[in-house]
Write a structure and sequence with these properties.
Glutamine synthetase family protein, about 450 residues, 12 helices, single chain, ten-stranded mixed beta sheet, alpha+beta, six-stranded mixed beta sheet, Gln_synth_cat_dom, ligase, glutamine synthetase activity, Ubiquitin-like (UB roll), Gln_synth/guanido_kin_cat_dom
């Protein structure tokens, strides 16, 4: 059990446990218990309706399906081994869904990721994942902050919000979130927090915990944190890039080999699997009704299904091994935004990479330029598919994807299709201004 686990005399300890899950719409949902109820939260768990999997990002609707309705009951069990301290009286733990008989619920994102990781392990593969979180600071009602001194990556951004920056770093350290760097980003009042690599489940847990820390610190300063893919229609978007390292028998797959930039054969297969599946994966990685406003060329969103060494406009960016990368080469998947369920997103990425290895997919040619500068004919000849900004097409592609269904399972994909389809159905003709305003704080904590 992590340090900070609740203890003391029953009935007198003021510690509260905050247990969270992330649902298919990317919403962080929670229950809290006093210290005396912590064992029950771990097993048998606390009751929750199946509709938790169908709560929509508009914070009003429920995307009912044949499998998800008002009948039935499930249990959320927190993982006490993953417990972390937020302050002297508040601890946090991630939860998973089980049915009343104790079997895992297939719509549960954390359980799905655990299953994919276990499947990797049975083939001798091991993954490490590092996350980048981009977000914007807003006023308490989501209003844009004055940013007259803001410059891209400028020191003025740090100094303007110096106390916020200090407290985020201090609170992340106290909570056990490994921060590699924290800096102003391109957009006004935009920041990026980079989290150290961990095993896939723990890494996804760290994203949820970091978002909670950011939200708590922002509140102390009368601010809010927007994790919308596009907080303001006239501003830049926010990504949630994932950096993936793969090893077999502790041998890295993305370096030390004879292939391009040192790729080993299995590493090349893994990248090929990611590129091949990227169009299908988009509904998992960037499927919200706001995501299409970011998924455009020139946004560093990885708007084309291709790969390239240090190519920030490719959906799959290979970061080569060398003195500047002491942890070795890794692959950054850029076509992810903060509206995604981080557990499902990681599971889909790892599953696609594993499929590329299993099928020995050949590595397509590297794209060495901004793919947006190529003509349509050049992209067609190079088999470079643009990712879509049409959310209805994205949802339909996900629904029809045998690849993603094989990775995540039909119940999980059906839940993702339901909540994203609800967004498209209920916000079909909204302008960029109304969409960004409506969903600006939808994924905030």
């Amino acid at each position: 059990m992590q340090s900070g686990a609740p203890g003391g005399t029953k009935g007198t300890d003021p510690t509260v446990l905050l247990g969270t899950i992330v649902n298919p719409a990317g919403l962080i949902l929670a229950k809290t218990v006093p210290q005396v109820r912590v064992p029950a939260f771990a097993s048998p768990g606390l009751g929750a309706s199946p509709t938790w999997h169908a709560f929509a990002a508009d914070q009003v609707g429920i995307a009912f399906t044949d499998a998800i309705g008002v009948v039935g009951d499930q249990r959320i069990r927190v993982d006490l081994e993953a417990m972390h301290t937020l302050d002297a009286t508040l601890v946090w733990a991630p939860g998973e869904f089980f049915d009343q008989a104790g079997a895992p619920v297939p719509q549960c994102a954390r359980g799905t990721l655990r299953r994919v990781v276990d499947s990797l392990g049975r083939t001798g593969l091991r993954a490490m994942v590092g996350h980048e979180l981009e977000f914007m600071l807003t006023g308490p009602e989501g209003q844009q902050l004055p940013a007259h001194l803001w410059a891209q990556y400028g020191a003025a951004g740090v100094l303007e919000h110096e106390q916020f920056v200090r407290e985020v770093l201090a609170d992340c350290h106290a909570a056990g979130v490994g921060v590699e760097q924290f800096h102003p980003e391109y957009g006004r009042s935009q920041f990026e927090l980079s989290i150290e690599p961990r095993d896939p489940v723990a890494a996804a847990d760290q994203v949820v915990l970091a978002r909670i820390v950011l939200g708590r610190v922002a509140r102390r300063h009368g601010l809010r944190v927007s994790f919308s893919p596009k907080p303001f229609a006239d501003g830049v978007g926010c990504g949630a890039h994932q950096h993936i390292s793969l090893m077999q028998d502790d041998q890295p797959l993305f370096s030390g080999g004879p292939g391009p930039t040192g790729l080993r054969a299995l590493g090349a297969n893994a990248i090929a699997g990611l590129v091949d599946a990227m169009v299908d994966l988009q509904g998992v990685l960037s499927g919200s009704v706001v995501s299409g406003l970011r998924m455009l060329p020139g946004q560093w969103a990885g708007a084309f299904a291709c790969w390239g060494v240090e190519n920030r406009e490719a959906a799959v960016r290979l970061i080569r091994s060398g003195p500047a990368t002491p942890r070795g080469a890794n692959v950054e998947v850029k076509a992810i935004d903060p509206s995604a369920n981080v557990y499902f997103a990681t599971a889909a990425i790892l599953g696609a990479a594993a499929l590329g290895i299993a099928l020995e997919m050949p590595l397509p040619p590297e794209v060495t330029v901004d793919p947006a500068t190529l003509t349509d004919q050049q992209r067609a000849e190079a088999d470079i598919a643009p990712l879509s900004a049409d959310q209805r097409a994205i949802v339909d592609t996900l629904d029809a994807s045998t690849t993603v269904r094989a990775i995540l399972g039909d119940p999980a994909v059906d839940a993702l299709v339901a909540v994203r389809g609800y967004e498209v159905d209920n916000f079909p003709d909204h302008t960029a201004d109304t969409l960004t305003e409506r969903f600006r704080l939808a994924w905030s904590v």
